Amino acid sequence: MKAESQITEAELEVMKILWEYGKATSSQIVERLTETTEWKPKTIQTLITRLVNKGAVGAEKINNKSFVYYPIVSEEQYKSYANKSFLQKLYNGSVSLMLASFVKEQKLSRKDLEFLKQLLDEEE
């Protein structure tokens, strides 16, 4: 099983920081996540460790006790997996069913509709 298929919602928050920074120490990750969540530093460190163990994040030792972490799974790889998984789970893999649902239920603006039309025209 690929690393991106095993990333939990909480771990995804760590990944977002690493995708933004490229590389970050655990202190930097903890600092960012304690601003936006109520997670304790130990919880955040556990998430980082899990991601390393899953192969989604790499760790490089920078001194005797510190590491810098970097994403192995790219944001694009994860989004591709998540899109396929979402499509399969909710719409049996049917893009047309998904688009119909979004168009009918999300009250798309004229600008959004025009953008979708343009994308479809370009694909033909």
Automatic annotation (TrEMBL):
Residues annotated as transmembrane: none
DNA-binding among keywords: yes
GO molecular function, one term: DNA binding
Tree of life domain: Bacteria
Keyword Transcription regulation: yes
GO BP, sorted A to Z: negative regulation of DNA-templated transcription
Keyword annotations of the record: DNA-binding, Transcription, Transcription regulation
Family according to the record: Belongs to the BlaI transcriptional regulatory family.
Protein name, UniProt field: BlaI family penicillinase repressor
Organism (species): Acetivibrio thermocellus AD2
